[in-house]
Structure formats: C-alpha cells, structure tokens
Amino acid sequence: MARIGLVVPSSNTTAEPEFRAMVPPDSTVHAARMPLEDVTADQLSEMADGAEKAAELLSHADIDGVAYACTTGSLLHGRGFDAELESRLSELTGTPAVATALSVTRALTALNVETLAVVTPYASELDELERAYLTESGFSVRSIDGRGLVDNTEIGSLTAVEAEQQVRSSLSDESDVDGIFISCTNYRSLSALATLEGYFDIPVVSSNAATMWDLSNRLGVSLKHCPV
C-alpha cells in the first residue's frame, strides 16, 4: 500500500482520476492545490510559489511520495528548475518527489526515444518553452502541435478521444519520429495511449503516465495500468 501525494494546479480536474486509474487498489491518491486559472507563463510562475505549502500540507497525511503534477509549471524556468522542485518537495515531505517535466524526460529516455512529436493543449508561448526545454534535455523535437487554449478548465474538459484525434491529425503515418509526447497533466489522454501506440508503432507518453511511472519506480509500487 502507498499513499501518493499530488501537488496540482487548482483548476486541474484530470490528474487525480488518471493517477487513481493507474495505482493498485490498495494505494490511494491525495492532492493539494496551488492557485491557477489560466495556463500562462506568468500565472504558472506565480503558482510555483504555492508548491511548498501544498507539499507541507500533504505531509500531514503521512504520504509515501509526492509528484509536482504540472508539465509547463515544472519546465517554465528551464533545466535545473525541475530538479530543484524535486529536491525542495522531497525535503519538505521527507519522501521521494518527482516533477512532471523531469519525469517525462526520464520516461522518454527509458523508451529510447530521440526524435519526438509533441501534442499540447497550449498556446504558442508555452509550446515554445516546451520545445526549448525538450531540446535542452537532448531530444530532437520534429513537430509541436498546440490547441491554443489558455483557460485550464477548458483544457480539463477535453476528452481522450479529442487527444487521440489531435495526435492523428498532427502526424502522418510516415512522420520521422520515434516517440510521441502528449503534454499537460490536465489533458485527458491516458486511455488513448495504447491505441495510438498500436497505430503508430512507437512509444506514446503522456504527462500523467510518465509522472506516475517515475514516482511508482521510486516507491516500488507495481501499477495496475501504466503505458510507459
């Protein structure tokens, strides 16, 4: 049994149900929230100030590990900020901690992905920040396709079917990539990953799948469902 802690944006409605879908029945997921309404660089930067308080509150529940479950929020300030987040949250909770952006790079590396197509719900400002982060992390980003959304509740209203459709419409069968990344912990896509992997015959990673895979490895938890 494990108690999984999540630090999430206040407007995120996807991370908790998708994490619960992956953990075994004897494990539980507990979230604390940081204020965020719109997914912009300014609001994400301000939101990070609430991470330590959220982690401290989660520690009262005697959690076994914690995830900073926000993709752009953990890559916003480039490489190094992600590891700093993990260190700070681990120190506050006394448990292993992961940050989504760094979890994604670990998952892609474990899957031997080098050339990448990225699909996001974001506006171009965040797409370019994500491209820069992934490039700095050693991946060749061949394409990045965003929906142009800023309102995080609107992102959370998207379905896994819409995520699958976006991936299919943004990539051709001959796309020169060896991996696909569906970005955003509030973009519902977990149930579409296996279908997309079968169609394109390459690894398909989402923010939530990578984060849960990374944290479960640190905790020694065997997931009942995780595509990574």
From TrEMBL:
Pfam families: Amdase (PF17645). Keywords: Plasmid. Gene3D superfamilies: 3.40.50.12500. InterPro entries: Iso_Racemase_Enz_sf (IPR053714), MaiA/AMDase (IPR026286). This is Aspartate/glutamate racemase family protein. It comes from Halocatena salina.
